[in-house]
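dumping the sequnces here before i forget
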Amino acid sequence: MTTSKKSERVPSAKVNGRVERSRYTVLTTAFELLSEGGVASFTVDEVSRRSGVAKTTIYRHWPTREALVIDACSRMIAEQEVPDTGTLEGDVTAILEEIAHLLPTANWSFVLPSIVDTAERNPEFAEIHSRIQRGHAAPLREVLQRAVDRGELSADADMSTIVAALLGPLFYRRWFSREPIDVPFVKAIIKRVLASL
Amino acid sequence: MTTSKKSERVPSAKVNGRVERSRYTVLTTAFELLSEGGVASFTVDEVSRRSGVAKTTIYRHWPTREALVIDACSRMIAEQEVPDTGTLEGDVTAILEEIAHLLPTANWSFVLPSIVDTAERNPEFAEIHSRIQRGHAAPLREVLQRAVDRGELSADADMSTIVAALLGPLFYRRWFSREPIDVPFVKAIIKRVLASL
DNA sequence: TCAATATGATACGATACCGTATCGTAGCGT
DNA sequence: ACGCTACGATACGGTATCGTATCATATTGA
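..and the predicted 3d for all of it:
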């Protein structure tokens, strides 16, 4: 199919081979660099040095430094799987304990403040930040919706408030008070929020 | 008093006059610049341009760019007054509504992400961040302590968890979900947390 | 008034980074 | 095997910033 002529060169289908490898190498290094120093100290020259890919080549694939940063940031969207324990409390506990586990360890947790800061003044980063944010909240929203469907949760419950009440305290400890996020803390938060539904 | 000799030159007491003015002008401009662009884009040259104070003079008062940034950041610690309505709920409501009002408007709320980001890798900023953080939590801790003293709150309540449960959702909305922080939301959070005590 | 001292203006060296140009080389698909 | 294309190495111009040096000027306090 679509093998009509040999002169038919679909550029986007020809990207296989070296190009793919270069892009991958650069993006991986870029993400690593971001994790270490944040957006501010991110440098194309440093990506080139570390990855071994010539700066010329990098600029052949990304028109500008910012484009590369944005591309690397986009790789940061966490793919969380949604649990299904049968009860709202079980689901919420599974999700929050997973996040509590990731917050002190995952690479994205080191980059996120940088993105939040940049997003404060740069619409493109605000968009990325928004996507990341929705990614974090999505599993919670899903299990909450299921609870509504089961009749376990009132249909007029304000999801947005509940999500903020659940995620807020965890994020607060990670980036503001810098206190450890242990299981008792997570359970206490969950208990508080679910008790009030 | 202490006017003993005219030859007595206490250097630190002689800083009056031009020095004071220069320092003040520079710090004010520096803070303004920080509010606009964050720590990353902060530049001594720009402070000089805007303030009209020669770069040479700036470097006479601060040994390095970072010293100036840190000094300017230190001006950011919010002095919040502690309410005393007689009830825990009243006090907490007053504090959180004040914060909810400040979060979208106050200068420090634009700089804080930058400090959080920098603090992630720089101990000096981690220290500043810690001070700012304690400043935010202090009023809450005080009214909670008063509630304990009145017997309104159990003495073995975990203050740290309560503070996180109260401030976390507000901060979450300001910097992560970027949703508005209106009075109903604040009241909902307070209700949830206080109901569980 | 006068001397000490803080300031301003300017220039400078050093460094780092962005993004481009050039040209030779290596790998890929056919 | 061969040609197209991506890649690497290198150099470059331009800009921005840090922090210092120098010297003239203004301000202050006695």
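Residues 33 and 173 of chain B are 25 Å apart (CA to CA).
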